[in-house]
């Protein structure tokens, strides 16, 4: 791997370390990607600034899984790119969060996304956490309103994700259920990209 690949790998392995992100930005600037370097530095500094999508180098591998009907806007959190019901939220220069329907979170998409971005949160927009009489991880499909509980959830959540979910147990709040599902999605995506588990817990719901 070249220096750029090694720096990107360092960013992916430890999403919480801004030092390696700034080193990556320096490398980008030294190799003719000054706008992207500025984007990384600005977001780390908390500056909300839009840049041309062509400058967001980490988006390039996703062109095969997202159409070109893409919109973008700035929020208090930074740059948001929306396409095909998929919302990518950039934080500190890379995609930090992705929001999308469960069916869109395919193996191909997840592998390409996590191979270029230190994603720490995944929201399945058509899965709504709910409670179950006897406790346990339970979701509702917002499209069909069918319940997804410990016995039939495999019909609504990818089997690969089940390996990363904690053992069934009481789910006290919707936030806890969302956090558990997000962590499972992140763990699966990182495993597809050949990355180690996150060195610390994700940001939750």
Structural account:
This protein has helices at residues 3-13, 18-30, 34-45, 107-114, 159-162, 174-192, and strands spanning 71-75, 78-83, 86-91, 94-100, 121-124, 127-129, 139-141, 147-148. The protein is an alpha+beta fold. The strands form 2 sheets. Strands 1-2-3-4-5 form a 5-stranded mixed β-sheet. α1 runs antiparallel to α2 (18-30) and α4 (107-114) packs across α6 (174-192). The longest helix is centred in the last third of the chain and has 19 residues, at 174-192.
Question: What is the number of E strands?
Answer: 8
N/C terminus separation: 35 Å
Order of helices and strands: HHHEEEEHEEEEHH
- Radius of gyration based on Cα positions: 18 Å
Major pleated sheet: 5 strands, mixed
- Oligomeric state, counting identical vs distinct chains: single chain
Structural class: alpha+beta
Strand content is 15-25%
Individual helix count: 6
Q: What is the typical, i.e. mean, pLDDT? A: 76
The outline comes out as: globular
**Low-confidence regions:** 145-155
Work out the helicity level.
25-40%
Strand line-up of the largest beta sheet:
1-2-3-4-5
Can you summarize this structure?
The chain is 33% helix and 18% strand. With 205 residues, it is α+β, with helices and mostly antiparallel strands. 35% of the residues are buried.
């Amino acid at each position: 791997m070249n220096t750029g690949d090694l720096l990107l790998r360092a960013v992916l392995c430890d999403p919480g370390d801004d030092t390696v992100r700034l080193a990556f930005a320096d490398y980008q600037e030294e190799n003719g990607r000054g706008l992207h370097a500025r984007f990384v530095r600005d977001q780390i500094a908390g500056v909300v600034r839009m840049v041309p999508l062509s400058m967001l180098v980490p988006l390039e591998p996703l062109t095969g899984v997202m159409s070109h009907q893409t919109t973008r806007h700035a929020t208090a959190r930074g740059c948001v790119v929306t396409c095909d019901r998929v919302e990518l939220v950039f934080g500190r220069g890379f995609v930090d969060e992705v929001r999308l329907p469960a069916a869109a979170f395919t193996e191909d998409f997840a592998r390409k996304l996590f191979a270029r971005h230190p994603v720490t949160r995944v929201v399945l927009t058509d899965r709504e956490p709910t409670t179950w009489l006897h406790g346990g991880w339970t979701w509702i499909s917002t499209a069909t309103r069918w319940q997804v509980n410990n016995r039939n959830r495999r019909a609504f959540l990818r089997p690969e994700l089940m390996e990363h979910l904690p053992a069934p147990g009481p789910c006290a709040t919707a936030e806890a259920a969302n956090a558990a599902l997000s962590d499972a999605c992140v763990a699966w995506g990182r495993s597809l990209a050949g990355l180690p588990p996150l060195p610390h817990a994700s940001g939750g719901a």
